[in-house]
Amino acid sequence: MLLFGWAALAQAAAPAVPAARVVPVAPAPPRDPLAARFPDAQLDDRALCDRLMARTAADAVFVDPETRYRRKVIVSDLHLGPGGADPRFTGIDDFYSDADWRAFLEKQAAAGPTDLIVNGDFIEFWQIAAALGTLPKRDDPRQPATGAVLASDQKFAVGAVDLVLAAHRSVFADLGWFLEHGDHRVIVIAGNHDVDLLWPKVQLAIARAIKPRDPARLIFTRGPGYEHGGVHVEHGHAFDAANRFSTNHAPFGRDRDGTCRVQSSWGEVFVDRFYTDVERKVPFIDNLYPQSAAILWAMRDNPDPQRDAGAVMKFIELVRVAEGRDFNRNAVASLLQSTLGTPGAKDMGPESVGEVAGHVTERLAKGDLTAGAMTDALMRFRFDPELASLWTALARAGRALPDMRAAASELRAVDPDAMAHLRDEVFGDPLSTAAGRLLGGDRKISVVVFGHTHEPGGSVEGIRARKYSGWYANTGSWISAASVADLRARGVGWDKLSLADRTMFPARNVAVTIDYTGGAPQKPAIVNAETAKEAVKAK
After folding, report:
1. Which of 22, 93, 159, 243 is the residue whose CA sits 20 to 30 A from 14?
2. pTM score of the predicted model
3. Which CATH number among 3.10.450, 3.30.70, 1.20.58, 3.60.21 corresponds to the domain 70-261+441-477+509-539?
4. Predicted confidence band at 400 (pLDDT cuts at 50, 70, 90)?
5. DSSP class of residue 349?
6. Where are the beta strands (DSSP E) in 229-351?
């Protein structure tokens, strides 16, 4: 007790120790959920290229793990451009439906939980690059010695998308509105004109313009295909010789300086060397369907022969450049064939190849899609790598004649798969044929949706392949379009064409919708923005 008392007195007599000073801690900076959603946007060029080029064929199709089956609304080919304020881009932007877009989204949001799928060619990167002269040329010393010809880098793509965001700010803001007004998602798939959507910094820039409250509801696919709930959606350029990339699941490469770039295609060469300049003079050239018939019509019937001659010479020159690099030869042949027609005179006798070629050329000039498919297929037969063994066997059989036994022996060496491929190419539309091949499988695909062709008004058709049956739908486009065959049938001459005449070039602004019953996708339907706008006005 005594000790305890002395200790207490000593403690009371001791000088007071001042309380520890509390130093305020600065609050952590607010987390940026959008930046966290796109971590690859922070990588330097080398690390990013390593990651992008490491993608495998398994990345060609994004299989959505979402367990809920919302109705699907699929649009494509808006081709949003840089607007018309800058004279460098005069005549390039084809999207004039900003107001219709909002009405369309309001109608779709009101219909219930929806997955809105933007299926390629959302943004027109190609023509921006062509107008700015920023695409590396085929013979640029920076091009790699082997492999795919390369185009733009991520720095260009970010600058280009900033132009588009400024010109069409409401289009992206309306997507943000759509995400806020119901149980909806937005899925963005890259096409051939906007393969730059695969750059992570471009994705982040678009996401910032959309401003989704829940970033997980805005999805950019890693490859050209998307599958969910028995539906396969893809832009369709992978099945088009003129526009597919050398490595569709990872369309990237390094130039000689080590810079990461997206791959080019024959279609981009065409836009860069020919189409953009022609469109400045003939604004409706890419509003005609099919484009091959439109170009042939322009070369034949345009009353300005001097301009036509210049266009033809430029076209021949770009073919020469492409061929010099052995660049996508089957696409060069296909495009040359469908643009200039099958060579040959009409006066070589009733059984001659020349007469048949002449008739096909005339049918093509009138916009006959069957004739276009025939000429494309014949040239693909000559240059398509999948048909190389068939072509070789036929050539050897021909050289063996008149020895029928030797000729028959050569023909027996033909690969049956090559024959099936030829039959598909000659007698079937490439996209319809591709749709048939996608039916069934482990994910039980019964609906296939493509875009790419700008088919006026879109389309839906039943398809069968092997033991499977289902539906193939095409989303058309959101730019004004007219059929060459329809215009010529109505007696409209080339000199009377006017993009301002909406009876000639209606803006159909179509979408494909798919509903579900019992977890199974139903027959696709076509809707358009005009109907949506009328419905919104009536509310």
Report:
1. 22
2. 0.74
3. 3.60.21
4. low
5. -
6. 231-234, 252-254, 260-263, 288-289
